Amino acid sequence: MANSKKLVFAILKFLEEQKLSGQLDDEAKESLEVAVQCLEQVYKLNITEGEFVMQYSIPQNLLDIFTSQLNQAKPNAASSLNEPTAEQKEEAERLKNKGLQPTVK
C-alpha cells in the first residue's frame, strides 16, 4: 500500500498546488479543500506533517510526470497504427460491397 499512499500523497500535493495557483474561484477552492480532507482521512495522510512528507514525497510533481508520459505516448500512438493485412483489406472490401447491394424483398 506504500505505492498507493505515494500516489495519493502526490494527488494531494497537486490539489494543494491547484488551490494556490490563483486560477480557481473561491467555490472551486473550497471543493478542492473538501477533496483534500476526504483523501487525507481515508488514507490517513497529511501533506503538511514532516513525517508524511519524508515517507511519501516523490521527487517530481504529478503534473510533470503526467506531461512526460503524454509526450512519450504521442510518437508511440502513431507507430501502433498498423497497415491492414491483405486478409483484412479483402474482408473490408467484401463487407463494403455487401452493404452496397440493394436489399431484395
TrEMBL record:
Residue ranges, annotated region (Disordered): 74-105
SGTA homodimerisation domain location is 3-67
- Keyword field contains Repeat: yes
Q: Name one GO cellular component term.
A: membrane
GO biological process annotation, one example: post-translational protein targeting to endoplasmic reticulum membrane
> Matching InterPro entries, A to Z?
SGT, SGTA_dimer
- Start-end of Basic and acidic residues biased regions: 86-96
Q: Where are the transmembrane segments?
A: none
* The protein's name in its UniProt record: SGTA homodimerisation domain-containing protein
State the organism named in the record. Answer: Arion vulgaris
Q: What is the lineage of its organism?
A: Eukaryota, Metazoa, Spiralia, Lophotrochozoa, Mollusca
Gene name, per UniProt, is: ORF53387
